[in-house]
Design a protein that fits this description.
Helices cover about 35% and strands about 25% of the residues. The protein is an alpha+beta fold. The chain folds into two domains: about 45-195, Protein Transport Mog1p, Chain A (3-Layer(aba) Sandwich); about 220-340, no CATH class.
Amino acid sequence: MIANSNQGPIYRLRTAPKDIGVVLILATALVLGWLLYQQTTSRTIAFTDAVSGVSLSYPATWIGVDSLQDVALKVQDPTADSAFKTSFVLETRPLDPASPPTLQTLLDRRVEERGQLTAYHFITEREATVDGARAIVSDYAYVVQPIDEPRRVALPVVVQAREYIVVATDSSYYFTLAAPEHEFADANRRFEELLRSVRLPGTVTSKSSPLACHQVDSRSVARSTVVSTHISTQLASQTCSACRVVPEWRCAKAVASASAAARGPSIVTVSCCIACSRRAAASSTASPTGTRSRWPASIGWCGAPVCCVSLPPGRATRMASVISGQLELAVDYVHTNLVTEI
């Protein structure tokens, strides 16, 4: 009895290092597995629509699938714990730049379309921004029968969906997430990450280039009418002179920097982010010089940031073909009504 009681502590003492080693190995394996899982789930795949030019990044674990509708992209999460797989869809629709519909009009049309879904129920709507552009967000729910075949067990699935509608210069964009109700919270977290990666064609923000003459925050751009074109550095300098009424105007310096970096004439974007509310546009608004002028509702007051951003020639040409005339109109108006006053 004494020998046995004396050997108990000895046995435990001799085997303790081995037990600690096993625990450390197991803990290390768990940490490495968790890091590998995080790395795998956080990887993304970049996508750019060849037609509209919109780009985004979606989770690398999601796979592309075919769609019966005319969509730019449709991907699904194959690991979703449901017969109905979480999906993301990107749709683009052309618009008439001369008379683009409002966000509310586009939402009303979508509600009418979605009304054909089984047990469709509209939940809520709110305003938001995507890459600095105004958007309207709608939440809704419906029911699907994922497997509609005899002798195959598949209960109906309640689907919760969220859609962002964005109106750009000549296109509207629809970013739609649909997920089983019990997986919507996790799916929406990844959806928000995807939306942060969205880059709309023609959007000018302070992140676009280090050559930005003036910082432009998303709220300013969302409230503004953006008038853009792509021109040579010589014409850009002339435009800088015409828009010298803009506070902290440093476009000439940025154009010179772009020219030096390109070692010759470079294509730049000159964007008058004209921040003029509808009420101000419809009434007399004081100019920066203290005089009062009548501002056309289509132009507004050129008192917001004006930016010079280097862009690839191909993209520059595409944008210029759509809205070059608007910039000429804006510059002519500013030069005639403002520069001559000071």
